[in-house]
Design goal:
Layout (H helix, E strand, L loop, with lengths): L5 H6 L1 E5 L3 H12 L3 E5 L3 H13 L7 E4 L2 H8 L7 E4 L5 H10 L8 E4 L5 H12 L4 E8 L1 H7 L2 E5 L2 H14 L19 H30 L4 H13 L7 H11 L38 H11 L5 H14 L1 H11 L13 H34 L5 H7 L9 H12 L13 H9 L1 H13 L5 H13 L6 H12 L29
Parallel strand pairs: 1-2, 1-4, 2-3, 4-5, 5-6
Antiparallel strand pairs: 6-7
Helix pairs in contact: 2-7, 9-12, 9-13, 9-15, 10-11, 13-20, 15-19, 15-20, 16-17, 19-20
Bound molecules: NADPH dihydro-nicotinamide-adenine-dinucleotide phosphate and ribulose-5-phosphate.
């Protein structure tokens, strides 16, 4: 026990609620850092399946006790550390309320609940208030990196009561992924109330923009340029090796996906078993249903937030709407019969294939960079309005390892800039010279990709909306002048005038002029 870190000694045992993909892996990881673990799940089968995995587990330090009964679970945590510590890893929404109501009578002043699910920040704030009344601290904590990181060290964004966070962050630091450059743990106090879950929600919004660009690039390379999956895997690996997209977790994964072939046995559970050569990717249908079945809410909430905080986030929105359209395949196929849209064609007339691949690389980078700009801007606006005081440089720091959107070059660019005092409340990332330069330098490439892709009927939702975004967020004279005129015509909404001091550019406020276009 003498080598046991104080952070572990203080809590001794953790109660994991939820033995699903994430909760199970967390249980093993917490045991590995020396905590005893009680794990309970509402569903008996989940506990049994975890107990089977436990039999095979190696390298554990703390004892792990899978428990079926919630009262027994609560008793197992009594009289252990100075205060009881829980981590919830369950579906967002009602489940956490339901579990809280089942355990509430056994909670004591000082106990801490880390909600590691992808929860809406307003639900988190509501539970924080409810728990405060009994002296219990509810910490809304984003956990990122999927089940592999949950096992070996995720990126975490906890937010809530600062004293409780001071108590628990040292323990989370032992668990968190470590930044390979500095060794710093990818977990930090994000701020009070719902700040932690807010940061995770936006992380997932950025994730969707980035994933959309990668799947659009894959399709362009495959059906547009006729490259094999192995060749595409090599291209993604090369993009991930150096340059603006170096060490991007999602590209690393993309390369792996392109190279994964079926085998006679398949993987451990037999998935991907086939006696005919082929790629696992070809076994996967084009439906992304997380939004339709509400099993995940974070990307949808990100877009709702972008609109209500007045941040233009078309890259994130396009990625989300793309996958929403994909989800209801049955309906989509019916529409396909009626609308008869062309499918992506082979791109012809290209003189140099390498050149278009390089332009595609730059276009994908524009999407990644724009996704980060949009996401950081939403966080920044919310932080100011909610008085969370979120440090954007800390967001970048915790996204350096363990999480899905990790991207070394982008982090290296943003972090020092966001660390500067003058940028602490920056709400527009394109005002950073370096960011503006990078977008500007890659404009010709993304424009070419969109023009070429559109001529050959390729799917480019995130890439094309990013091109438009780049054009209009820095446009000195937008056609919205006409929109403003129409609004004044039908609604007497009034307008500002060009060249008039105090109006041009003036504040973001309604003008005083109205033209009586057509008297009523
Ligand atoms: N998978 C991932 O990559 C990541 C997931 N997350 C988040 O972590 C959480 C867990 O995800 P994951 O492990 O993947 O999901 P799983 O579906 O594997 O696990 C969800 C767990 O929640 C339980 N649950 C559902 N309804 C209730 C209820 N009413 N009362 C109590 N428990 C309930 C489920 O039980 P049952 O089987 O009965 O439904 C299950 O044990 C989610 O909030 C998810 O958004 C966060 C980061 C990454
Ligand atoms: O949180 C995650 C990663 O960061 C989870 O993988 C989550 O399931 C992703 O789903 P969605 O894109 O619907 O949020």
């Amino acid at each position: 026990m003498s080598n046991t870190p104080d952070a572990v000694k203080q809590f001794k045992r953790i109660g994991v609620v939820g033995a699903g993909n994430m909760g199970s892996m967390m249980a093993f990881a917490f045991s590995e850092i020396g905590l005893d673990v009680s794990i309970w799940d509402v569903k008996r089968e989940n506990v049994d399946s975890f107990a089977k995995q436990l039999q095979q587990a190696k390298g554990l330090k703390g004892e792990i006790e899978p428990i079926h009964d919630v009262d027994e679970f609560m008793r197992s945590l009594d009289g252990q550390g100075e205060r009881k510590l829980f981590i919830f890893s369950i579906t967002h929404g009602y489940p956490a309320d339901s579990v809280l109501s089942q355990i509430k009578q056994d909670l004591k002043k000082g106990d801490i609940i880390l909600d590691g699910g992808n929860e809406h920040y307003r639900n988190t704030e509501r539970r924080q208030k409810e728990c405060e009344e009994i002296g219990v601290s509810w910490i809304g904590m984003g956990v990122s990196g999927g089940y592999q990181s949950a096992r070996h060290g995720p990126s975490m964004s906890p937010g809530g009561d600062p004293d409780s966070l001071d108590g628990v962050v040292p323990l989370l630091e032992l668990y968190a992924a470590k930044d390979p450059k500095t060794g710093m743990p990818c977990v930090m106090n994000m701020g009070p109330r719902g700040a932690g879950h807010y940061v995770k929600m936006i992380h997932n919004g950025i994730e969707v923009g980035m994933m959309s660009a990668i799947c659009e690039a894959w399709s362009f390379l495959s059906s547009g340029l006729g490259l094999s999956y192995d060749e595409i895997g090599n291209i993604f690996a090369k993009w991930n090796d150096s340059g603006e997209m170096r060490t991007t977790y999602l590209l690393n994964l993309a390369a792996d996906i392109c190279r994964t072939t079926k085998s006679s046995q398949g993987e451990q559970k037999g998935e991907g078993a086939s006696n005919v050569d082929g790629y696992v990717l070809d076994d996967i249908l084009d439906k992304v249903v997380q939004d339709d079945d509400s099993s995940e809410g974070t990307p949808t909430w990100s877009i709702i937030e972008s609109a209500s905080r007045h941040v233009s986030a078309p890259t994130l929105a396009s990625g989300l709407y793309f996958r929403i359209a994909s989800g209801n395949r049955a309906e989509r196929l019916k529409v396909a019969q009626k609308i008869g849209m062309p499918t992506p064609n082979s791109v012809t007339g290209i003189k140099e294939r390498e050149a278009i691949i390089e332009q595609l690389r730059r276009a994908v980078y524009c999407v990644f960079l724009s996704s980060f700009c949009q996401g950081l801007e939403i966080i920044s606006r919310a932080s100011i309005e909610e008085e969370w005081n979120i440090d954007l440089a800390k967001c970048i720091q915790i996204w350096r390892a363990g999480c899905i959107i990790q991207s070394e070059y982008i982090a290296d660019m943003f972090q020092p800039l966001l660390n500067k005092e003058e940028n602490h409340q920056l709400t527009n990332m394109k005002l950073l010279d370096r960011v503006a330069q990078e977008l500007q330098q890659n404009y010709a490439a993304i424009k070419h990709v969109v023009a070429t892709g559109a001529s050959f009927d390729h799917y480019l939702p995130a890439i094309s909306s990013t091109l438009e975004y780049m054009k209009y967020v820095g446009g000195a004279k937008l056609p919205t002048q006409f929109m403003e005129a129409e609004m004044d015509y039908f609604g007497a909404h009034s307008y500002n005038k060009p060249g008039v001091p105090g109006e041009d550019p003036g504040p973001t406020a309604k003008g005083s002029h109205h033209y009586e276009w057509k008297p009523a």
